[in-house]
Design brief:
This protein has 437 residues and is mainly α. Helices cover 41% and strands 5% of the residues. It has two domains: 129 residues; 234 residues, Cytochrome c-like domain (Cytochrome Bc1 Complex, Chain D, domain 2). It is globular. InterPro entries: Cyt_c-like_dom, Cyt_c-like_dom_sf, Cytochrome_c-type_DH, Membr-bd_ADH_cyt_c.
Length: 437
């Protein structure tokens, strides 16, 4: 997954921890310290070393792709897995660590056991808590066998002697002790448990989506404490700082996949385009770095699991939202001039390179953030093995003022029977300076 897409959440998590800490009695914190410290690995080098047989390493490389490790642990123009990627948050900057087998700065002195305990417990070998910017609540579900394979692969990459940069979080967000409170509320340690009432394929998909794929990190809204509830899992939400909206995967009224075919879901995840749409923004990087490399069998398993998530509330129905006549007319004129050539006069699109806009759930969602950003900034689906030369959309931020951009977004959200709500110039203006990545 795109690095900042996952890691920017740490600042919010820490902010929630600060609030929680004030409500926890000192004896509780002391007990938490003692209980968790007791399970910490005293020496990183103790225990069994990595099994680096070629077949294990190859499998570990594949699983590291599934977990999208490269996206966070490789900085732009940096050395592979050497860390140093800066993640800006409202509370300061986090830097990803070096996970090459360098003994001094990486994980070269770690044992297989120490790496597994880090994955399972969210703690470093010295017992220090890991910021939940790393998807510890998801990686705890990874099996011992898969953890060992990932470790074996990482032990074979080129060691990089590059020191880890210190986080520059403001007080009190730089106090790791705050994480004890957060973990009490939101971290449940334990391996993924297959559902005996589901198929092997469904369970494989659930394991990848809920574990290594850590899809809930983006597709579940976070609360004021920086955590998320089981009730809101996969229900979608705005991604702080980046200002992209991760759509709901459970509600057919807001981006759910209930009426998608398995083929369309597979195409979207693996190729970045399908007959139903294309991926842009942070999700494009997930496909680019990770999903395109997964086997057809694993992608299909993920699709089967994802398709089973939506509720049965059905698509949005009824008349389109009322729109100011002048705004609608302005939007229609701009659409005909700048959009219809690719997306069709009636929003029908030209498959697969130009997605349809009529009946497109990503256009109709309650949140208008994504269509506004695409109109302003344009974008490309990722270049993938199945779609190596993607067609893109040009940016219109320099051509359209806020009122004009709002009008055309309103038009595509309410024309052709679409059931989105109108947007105004203020909403457009708020997103003009949003980060592009």
């Amino acid at each position: 997954m795109k690095p900042t897409f996952r890691l920017l959440m740490a600042g919010l998590i820490l902010g929630g921890g600060a609030m929680l800490l004030h409500s926890l009695p000192a004896p509780f914190l002391a007990q938490s310290h003692a209980a968790e410290a007791a399970s910490a690995t005293p020496a990183a080098a103790s225990g069994v070393q990595a099994d680096t047989r070629p077949e294990i390493v190859k499998r570990g490389e594949y699983l590291a792709r599934a977990g999208d490790c490269i996206a966070c642990h490789t900085a732009p123009r940096g050395r592979l897995f050497a860390g140093g990627l800066a993640m800006e948050t409202p509370f300061g900057t986090l830097y990803s660590p070096n996970i090459t087998p360098d003994v001094q700065y990486g994980i070269g002195s770690w044992s297989q056991e120490a790496f597994f305990k880090m994955m399972r417990t969210g703690r470093k070998p010295n017992g220090e808590l890991i910021y939940p910017a790393m998807p510890i609540a998801q990686y705890t579900k990874v099996t011992r066998e898969d953890s060992d394979a990932i470790f074996a692969f990482l032990k074979t990459v080129e060691p990089v002697r590059e020191a880890n940069r210190k986080h520059t979080l403001r007080f009190p967000y730089n106090q790791r002790d705050l994480l004890y409170g957060w973990r009490t509320l939101y971290f449940r340690e334990g391996e993924f448990k297959p559902d005996p009432n589901k198929s092997v394929e469904w369970n494989r998909g659930a394991y990848l989506v809920e574990g290594l794929g850590h899809c809930t990190m983006c597709h579940t809204k976070i609360n004021m404490l920086g955590g998320s509830s089981k009730r809101d899992q996969f229900a979608g939400g705005l991604i702080p700082v980046q200002n992209w909206y991760a759509p709901s995967l459970t509600s057919n009224k807001d981006g759910g996949l209930g009426d998608w075919s398995i083929k369309d879901i597979v195409d979207l995840l693996q190729a970045g385009i399908s007959d139903r749409g294309a991926v842009y923004g942070p999700m494009a990087e997930v496909t680019y770095h990770s999903l395109q490399y997964l086997t057809d069998e694993d992608i299909r398993a993920m699709a089967i699991y994802l398709k089973s998530l939506p509720d049965n509330s059905g698509r949005k129905s009824g008349p389109s939202a009322p729109t100011n006549t002048n705004v609608f007319a302005l939007g229609a004129k701009i659409y005909a001039d700048k959009c219809a050539l690719c997306h069709g006069a009636n929003g029908e699109g030209h498959l697969q390179h130009y997605p349809p806009l009529a009946g497109n759930q990503s256009i109709e969602m309650d949140s208008a953030v994504n269509p506004i950003r695409i109109v302003l900034n344009g974008g490309f689906p990722p270049g993938t093995m199945r779609n190596p030369e993607p067609y893109g959309m040009p940016p219109f931020a320099q051509e359209l003022n806020d009122t004009e951009a709002a009008a055309v977004v309103t038009y595509i959200r309410t024309a052709w029977g679409n059931h989105g709500q109108p947007v105004d110039a203020r909403q457009v203006n708020e997103l003009r300076n949003a980060p592009l990545h």
